[in-house]
Structure formats: C-alpha cells, structure tokens
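U., I forgot to send this yesterday:
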Amino acid sequence: MIWTSIEGLFCNNKKIRILALEAEFRGTAQGDLPVLQYYQKMKSLVDALGALDHAISDETLVLTILRGLTKRFSMISIIIATKTPFPDFLEVRTLLQMNEASHTKKVAAPNTLYSSTGNPSAPHTYNYSTKSNNNGGSRGGKYKPKPKKAGGDGGGSPNGNNYQGVSVPFFNPMTGTF
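Result:
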C-alpha cells in the first residue's frame, strides 16, 4: 500500500513537471541570447521532457524555435518554415548561425555607399536638377544627375532643393534590412 502511494505521488509530480517544462518550452523566446545559446536552452528543455517520457518531435522543436526568434530573423524564419522537405534541428541551427554571422558583419561595417572622386577627402555628391544643358532652361522634368564640383557652380533645382551629400543605404532583400 505504501508503494502505491509513493508511485501516485511520483506520477502526479511527473505530470506537474511536464506541464511546467512544456509551458517553459512553448514560451521561451530568444531575447538577447545568441542563436547557439538559444538553441542549447531549447534542446535542454526538450531533453528534460523526453526524460519524463514526454517526447517532442523534431518538427515541433524547429517550429517553436522559429516562433521564438527575434524580428531580425523573420525573413529567414519564413524561408525555413516553407522549405520542402522540412529541415531538421541541426540544419536549422546551421542556417540561423550563418544568418546571425552575416548580421554581425553588417553591424561592424557601415552600409552607406559612396562613389570615389579624384580627391579622397571630397565626397562625391550629385546635383539633382531639372535644368537642361542648353541655356539653362527647364525641360519638363528630365532628370540627369550631374557631378557637383568642389566649390559648387550655384546650380540646383529652381526651388532651391539641391539633394547634395545624400548617401544611399544598401538594402539587403534576403534579410529585409538596410
């Protein structure tokens, strides 16, 4: 009779532990963790659930991980979730680590494009003007960017909007970021 009571306590504790681990597994988000640490945390939760005879499928693990990633992984998450055949845990970890490494490189290097001029200290700017090349008259909105010489020639659009010194950021279509 005492063994039946102990077994009953163990089973009840096991179910409570499964509920707690399952809730933690489903609710864990990446936050500030690097991909590898987030993966290790999620894998340890799945292993703990497996030790309690509550197995989590590889697909459920991957989908839960993708759902918990930060917004900077949103594009790669969509790509991974729609892959056929569905990728396994290790493949997704590798893809996310490569994506994280590319994000880290982008943060270290500026994303602004500049064109080179003969003088490295003088930035190359464009004078966006609607003036034509003949007698300076306006030609119905034809656009021709003209390199602006150092010191300037006083040109520009008739309303005074010279879009000089505007840098154009690089847009990465794979990540959806600038």
